[in-house]
Write a structure and sequence with these properties.
There is one protein chain. The protein is an alpha/beta fold and about 250 residues long. It has a single domain, classed as 3-Layer(aba) Sandwich (Rossmann fold). About 35% of the residues lie in helices and about 25% in strands. It has seven helices and eight strands, in the order H-H-E-H-E-H-E-E-H-E-H-H-E-E-E. Strands 3-2-1-4-5-8-6-7 form an eight-stranded mixed sheet. Strand 2, helix 4 and strand 3 form a beta-alpha-beta unit. The longest helix is centred in the first third of the chain and has 22 residues.
C-alpha cells in the first residue's frame, strides 16, 4: 500500500481519457503512437544495461529476467510489458485506462504471452512487490508527482530496481516536444503539458526523499544521422534507474 501520509489519487481523469482514445492505434508502428515505437528500443537498451549492472546478469542472456517479477505502471497497450515477458520476467501491467488494458491483453494473448494486466490506480491494487518497477513517460501526466513516486517505490521488492523516463522541462522541450512535435503530428495534439514536465534534479530530489538513490541516468536525444539514441544530452528527455539506499 502507498505511504499513508500522501494522497493515493494520482490519475488525472482527462489524461486517462485522452490515452484511452488512442488504445486501438497503440500497436500500429506508423500510427498515432509511432513515436513510442521508435523510442521503445532506446528505452529497452537502457533498462537492459541497468538491469545487467544491478543483477550481475549476462548481457547476452536472452532470458535474463527468468525468475524475476516486473511491473510496468502506466503500461498503455503493453509496448514495454511484452519485451520484458520475452526476457523471462513474470510481468504485470497497470494503466489508468481500461481501454488500454483491453488492447494490451488482446495483443499479449495473440502473441502467446502470459502477462497480467490490471486497470486502475496502482496504490489501490493488491498486486504485491516486484524486482523491477518501470514507469515510462508517465510522471509528467500525474496529478501528484510525490504521491505517484511513493506508489512506485512502495512496489519495489527488497533489492528491486526502479526505472523512470520523462521529458525534461527546458525551453527546447517546450519548443520541440510540445510545439513542433504536436504541430507536425509526430505525437497526437494535446499529449503534453509542458508545465507538468519535471527536471532531472527535481525528480532525483523527490526520489531521495523516498530513500532511493540513482544508479544510472542518460538523456534520450535525436540527431538526423542517428535518430533517437541514448546520450549525455538530457535537453529533451531522460531516463534513470534507482534503488533503495542501503541501511
Amino acid at each position: 500500500m502507498a505511504n499513508a501520509n500522501v494522497s493515493n489519487v494520482t490519475i488525472r481523469p482527462e489524461e486517462a481519457a485522452f490515452f484511452a482514445g488512442l488504445a486501438r492505434d497503440w500497436w500500429n508502428p506508423t500510427g498515432k503512437m509511432a513515436s513510442l515505437h521508435q523510442v521503445n528500443p532506446v528505452r529497452l537498451a537502457f533498462i537492459r544495461e541497468a538491469l545487467d549492472a544491478h543483477l550481475g546478469s549476462d548481457p547476452d542472456d536472452i532470458r535474463a529476467l527468468t525468475g524475476h517479477s516486473a511491473l510496468d505502471i502506466g503500461c498503455g497497450a503493453g509496448l514495454l510489458c511484452e519485451p520484458l515477458a520475452r526476457l523471462g520476467a513474470q510481468v504485470t501491467g497497470v494503466d489508468a485506462a481500461s481501454d488500454n488494458i483491453a488492447a494490451a491483453a488482446a495483443h499479449a494473448e495473440a502473441s502467446g504471452l502470459d502477462i497480467r494486466y490490471m486497470a486502475g490506480e496502482v496504490s489501490g491494487l493488491d498486486i504485491g512487490t516486484f524486482d523491477l518497477v518501470t514507469s515510462l513517460e508517465v510522471v509528467e501526466h500525474v496529478a501528484d508527482k510525490r504521491a505517484f513516486l511513493a506508489d512506485c517505490a512502495a512496489r519495489l521488492a527488497p533489492g528491486g530496481l526502479l526505472v523512470l523516463s520523462t521529458p525534461n522541462r527546458t525551453p527546447a522541450s517546450k519548443l520541440l516536444l510540445v510545439g513542433a512535435a504536436e504541430a507536425v503530428g509526430y505525437v497526437p495534439r494535446g499529449t503534453h503539458d509542458w508545465d507538468m514536465f519535471v527536471t532531472p534534479e527535481e525528480l532525483e530530489a523527490m526520489l531521495a526523499e523516498l530513500g532511493l538513490e540513482i544508479t544510472a541516468r542518460r538523456g534520450i536525444a535525436w540527431r538526423p544521422s542517428r535518430g533517437l539514441h541514448l546520450s549525455d544530452d538530457e535537453t529533451l528527455n531522460y531516463i534513470l534507474a534507482a534503488r533503495r539506499i542501503a541501511a
